[in-house]
């Protein structure tokens, strides 16, 4: 394992990747772009490293020795709320969907294109600017309370367990309550990329958020799907 411990003010990225060449090239590229980087090659140490270092962002390979990326992601999500970007080698989007369901915030397919990786990372690290869409740092809809200052949400007084990406999506939808947000708008705001018409990551994330905010997945009343367009957050559910 390798650590870069200089410049503590920089965003700290933990790369969990057993491909030594890929990990090294990625580390060098990210350090050249102002990040502080730690590399961990063994999946067996992945959970411990994430919870000990608590990095600003984790780049997590899907296939690892010791413990696979899906298992690591699932195990840390109760304690680590930072963004997790998963690297997937397979073309089947089932791996990507499973990663998102386990709590990953985004994914980049291999072979990794450095500029694409950097753009996705910056989008994940960029927090939603509440002044962009709402002057209110706290939004209340019945028994649902969403606070952008603390990046937390509560349902009937109970704190909701949300990943960083789930909160960003919930806040974006809630702060635009009453207006249909297209998938193109959501992708641009949250991921910094254009919607390709096939990516299911936002749909998966909405399906994870709905039960957490007390919405019926089969007949949602709070976050409604608008066919061929996007999603509508209803003010009064």
Automatic annotation (TrEMBL):
The entry's localization annotation reads: Cytoplasm
GO CC annotations on file: cytosol; protein-DNA complex
Q: Which UniProt keywords apply?
A: Cytoplasm, DNA-binding, Phosphoprotein, Transcription, Transcription regulation, Two-component regulatory system
Source organism of this protein record: Halomonas korlensis
CDD domains linked: trans_reg_C
Q: Which GO terms describe its biological process?
A: regulation of DNA-templated transcription
Q: Where is the Response regulatory domain?
A: 12-125
Quote the PROSITE patterns the UniProt record gives.
Answer: OMPR_PHOB (PS51755), RESPONSE_REGULATORY (PS50110)
- DNA-binding region in chain numbering: 136-235
Protein name in UniProt:
Two-component system, OmpR family, response regulator RstA
Q: Name one GO molecular function term.
A: phosphorelay response regulator activity
> Per its UniProt record, what InterPro entries does this chain match?
CheY-like_superfamily, OmpR/PhoB-type_DNA-bd, Sig_transdc_resp-reg_C-effctor, Sig_transdc_resp-reg_receiver, WalR-like, WH-like_DNA-bd_sf
Location, primary (coarse class):
cytoplasm
> Which residues get modified to 4-aspartylphosphate?
61
Question: Ranges for the OmpR/PhoB-type domain?
Answer: 136-235
SUPFAM superfamilies named among the record's database cross-references: C-terminal effector domain of the bipartite response regulators, CheY-like
What Pfam family is a match, any one? Answer: Trans_reg_C
